[in-house]
């Protein structure tokens, strides 16, 4: 990573993390600039979700450096991290049957003073976030009664209501149908472009990554195998080395973006 990288983003240098004696991240270098979407891709168990948890302050301590808007993450209070960065997990957990509006209002808590209650302004921001995510109709429904995809939309709204400078997305649309996936990523693209929000998205769908990500990091066994602009990283050699499977890579004639098609191992070459 160049020393010329701007200090206002997320900067990760030689990041290492282990669960006990088992290393999971082994010297990761990565950056996320304001106003861009960065994709983090790799096979199961490569360390993607662990990296998200380190950057969100859930997992400590770590070795190496991870800075958020120029401040070392390990030195930041949890509230300060939450004012700057919001996380959309793959499988949100709700301890109680809050309704959707109450869940989204939790995104306003980092901005409240002490034990203060949410203001009318906070409620308006929460409702706007629900509307942007196509979930306003669920505002007064218990989240435990919603489908998995509907809950993901509510959690995305919570992250937007938090008004963060950065979003960390961990497979945020894994339970959504194709329409709601496109709507979510269009919304994230607009948020990045219009609000200069920096986004790091853990994704398994290579074609979603190709359509929406400005840059890509390929992670395998806790190490970055390749990084750079999406069109440069999405090559047969890089994807084969990362995922240990054959793919067909071309340019989508309709969009001009990369197109990746997994090839069955049963199919014989012509």
From TrEMBL:
Record flagged with keyword Nuclease: no
GO MF term list: ATP binding; ATP hydrolysis activity
Pfam families membership: ABC_tran (PF00005)
Keyword Nucleus: no
Gene3D superfamilies associated with the record: P-loop containing nucleotide triphosphate hydrolases
Keyword terms: ATP-binding, Nucleotide-binding, Translocase, Transport
Residues covered by the ABC transporter domain: 10-246
Alphabetical list of CDD domains matching this protein: ABC_Iron-Siderophores_B12_Hemin
Superkingdom per UniProt: Bacteria
Function summary: Part of the ABC transporter complex HmuTUV involved in hemin import. Responsible for energy coupling to the transport system.
Name under which the protein is recorded: ABC transporter ATP-binding protein
Species of the source: Candidatus Polarisedimenticola svalbardensis
Phylogenetic lineage: Bacteria, Pseudomonadati, Acidobacteriota, Candidatus Polarisedimenticolia, Candidatus Polarisedimenticolales
